[in-house]
Amino acid sequence: MTMMDALGLIENRSYLSSIVAADTALKAANVTLIDLEIIRGGYVTVKLIGDVGAVKAAVEAAKDAAESFGALISAHVIPRMHEETAKLIEKQKGRPAASPEGAKPTAKQEKEETGEQAKTEAVQEESPSPAATERNEENGQEKLTREQLEKLTVVKLRQLVRERKAMESATQINTAKKAELIHSLLEKMEKKE
């Protein structure tokens, strides 16, 4: 987002009318949908950005579409957003706020980036490395040890069980505990040998 961008907001009383409003706005002008925020009580706010003329045209089209549902609460365009307003919108989307070119990241932004990097590294450590696994020549699947399986999350274990057809039904896979998933995978690997 740049300070030259305009922000368009359309608030409706229903999700359906908001989807229609967003679709209409995107078809009406060259704008970007940045969020469809669901608020309590069935209220939904559509947020758009783009150049001022495009956002005005898109909001007007979206407003007409939402009015046809009788769900429009309000619509507004903020031309040439202030830098602080742009930061507020970006923070709500979970992205670090845009900083002017050449500006150094704040301590908070550096801390957030470091945290994201640590999460990525943790996920990479979770998966067994190719060097730590053997290949089963018969079907090309990795042979995993109990220790490697213990390090995996339940979600990853369920994915492996599905891929290797180590359990019969989807219900059984979805309700199985970690120990059951590991047991079925080990049992399946022993049968393949």
Helix/strand layout:
Blueprint: E1 6-12, H1 15-28, E2 32-38, E3 44-50, H2 52-67, E4 72-78, H3 83-92, H4 107-126, E5 134-135, E6 142-143, H5 146-151, H6 154-164, H7 170-175, H8 178-192
Antiparallel strand pairs: 1-3, 1-4, 2-3, 5-6
Helix pairs in contact: 1-2, 6-8
Structure description:
By secondary structure, this protein is an alpha+beta fold. The chain has two domains: 6-99, Alpha-Beta Plaits; 130-192, no CATH class. 51% of the residues lie in helices and 17% in strands. It contains eight helices and six strands. The strands form two sheets. It has a four-stranded antiparallel beta sheet with strand order 2-3-1-4, covered by helices on one side. It has a two-stranded antiparallel ribbon with strand order 5-6. A hairpin with a 6-residue loop joins strand 5 and strand 6. Helix 1 (15-28) packs antiparallel against helix 2 and helix 6 (154-164) packs parallel to helix 8. The longest helix is centred in the middle third of the chain and has 20 residues, at 107-126. The model is unreliable at 95-109 and 119-139 (pLDDT under 50). Residues 107-119, 134-147 have a biased composition (Basic and acidic residues). Keywords: Bacterial microcompartment. InterPro entries: BMC_dom (IPR000249), BMC_shell (IPR050575), CcmK-like_sf (IPR037233), CcmK/CsoS1_BMC (IPR044872).
CATH class of the largest domain: Alpha Beta
Largest sheet: 4 strands, antiparallel
Mean pLDDT reading: 76
- Looking across the biggest beta sheet, what order are the strands in? 2-3-1-4
Strand residue content: 15-25%
Q: Please tally the helical runs, counting DSSP H or I stretches of 4 or more residues.
A: 8
CATH topology of the largest domain: Alpha-Beta Plaits
CA radius of gyration is 25 Å
CATH architecture of the largest domain: 2-Layer Sandwich
- What's the CATH H-level superfamily name of the largest domain? BMC (bacterial microcompartment) domain
Task: List the quaternary state of the chains.
Answer: single chain
In N-to-C order, the SSE pattern is EHEEHEHHEEHHHH
Which class of secondary structure composition applies to the elements? alpha+beta
Fraction of residues in helix: 40-55%
Number of domains: 2
Beginning-to-end CA distance, first to last residue = 57 Å
Overall, the morphology is elongated
Give the low-pLDDT segments: 95-109, 119-139
Give the strand tally: 6
InterPro entries: BMC_dom, BMC_shell, CcmK-like_sf, CcmK/CsoS1_BMC
Family: Belongs to the bacterial microcompartments protein family.
Protein name: Ethanolamine utilization protein
Region (Disordered): 91-147
